[in-house]
């Protein structure tokens, strides 16, 4: 029974983030991704691109399997590249939300029964294996997308070189890929491949 108990707990923990889970990002406190999405849409409607991009990026991080935050980011001009979840398409769908939670719970339950009992273990292991196989692509893609170090500029700022010279201005809501932090600046890469330093206070990650 211990095997069954721990496998079931593992299943619930692994899939919890793909359901309606809280998010902690940037200047926001704990809230669900839907709250961040609503704030972002409201800011976009008001013409505040920086605040909208920060909130929508938080929503995307909190629900990387969902289409709505990605679509909203692109609608306000944030050039979010194709994600792993998008690239997998229907293969990632079983891991989304409560269906993913149910499949992971089924996998944990079936594998626990298969490993803990003698009778019927073959079918239990097969069912558990199939359930894990169904959610594995989506969970792997979501994990990769969540770990991508994206950030957006809160306000209009600029890209500088290591000597402090201005390379180019950056409008609010510019998407960048972050690297190491150098003093009070962060090394970033733009979507066109250009690299430089941006003040860390101007970025929301």
Question: How do you describe this structure in short?
Answer:
The chain is α+β, with helices and mostly antiparallel strands and 205 residues long.
> Would you tell me the overall average pLDDT?
80
The number of helical segments is 7
The ordered string of helix (H) and strand (E) elements is HEEHHHHHHEEEEEEE
Helix content: 40-55%
Counting helices, strands and paired strands, the structural category is alpha+beta
Largest sheet: 5 strands, antiparallel
**First-residue to last-residue Cα separation:** 42 Å
Topology:
Layout: H1 2-15, E1 22-23, E2 31-32, H2 33-45, H3 49-62, H4 68-75, H5 84-88, H6 97-116, H7 121-147, E3 150-153, E4 157-160, E5 166-170, E6 175-182, E7 185-189, E8 195-199, E9 203-204
Antiparallel strand pairs: 1-2, 3-6, 3-9, 4-5, 6-7, 7-8
Looking at this protein, list some descriptive labels.
two-stranded antiparallel ribbon; 205 residues; alpha+beta
Could you describe the 3D structure shown?
The structure is a single chain. It is built from 7 helices and 9 strands. The strands form 3 sheets. Strands 8-7-6-3-9 form a 5-stranded antiparallel sheet.
């Amino acid at each position: 029974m211990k095997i069954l108990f721990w496998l079931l707990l593992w299943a619930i923990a692994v899939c919890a983030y793909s359901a309606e889970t809280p998010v902690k990002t940037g200047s926001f406190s704990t809230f669900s991704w839907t709250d961040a999405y609503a704030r972002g849409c409201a800011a976009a409607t008001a013409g505040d691109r920086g605040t909208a991009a920060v909130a929508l990026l938080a929503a995307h991080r909190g629900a990387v399997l969902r289409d709505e935050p990605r679509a909203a980011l692109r609608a306000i001009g944030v050039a979010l590249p194709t994600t792993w979840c998008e690239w997998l398409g229907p293969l990632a769908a079983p891991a989304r939300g409560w269906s993913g939670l149910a499949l992971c719970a089924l996998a944990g339950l079936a594998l626990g029964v298969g490993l803990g009992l003698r009778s019927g273990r073959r079918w239990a292991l097969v069912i558990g294996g199939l359930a894990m196989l169904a959610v594995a692509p989506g969970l792997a893609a979501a994990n990769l997308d969540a770990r991508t170090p994206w950030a957006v500029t809160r306000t209009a700022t600029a890209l500088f070189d290591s000597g402090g010279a201005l390379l180019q201005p950056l409008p609010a809501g510019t998407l960048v890929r972050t690297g190491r932090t150098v003093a009070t600046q962060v090394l970033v890469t733009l979507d066109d491949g250009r690299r430089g330093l941006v003040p860390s206070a101007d970025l929301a990650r």
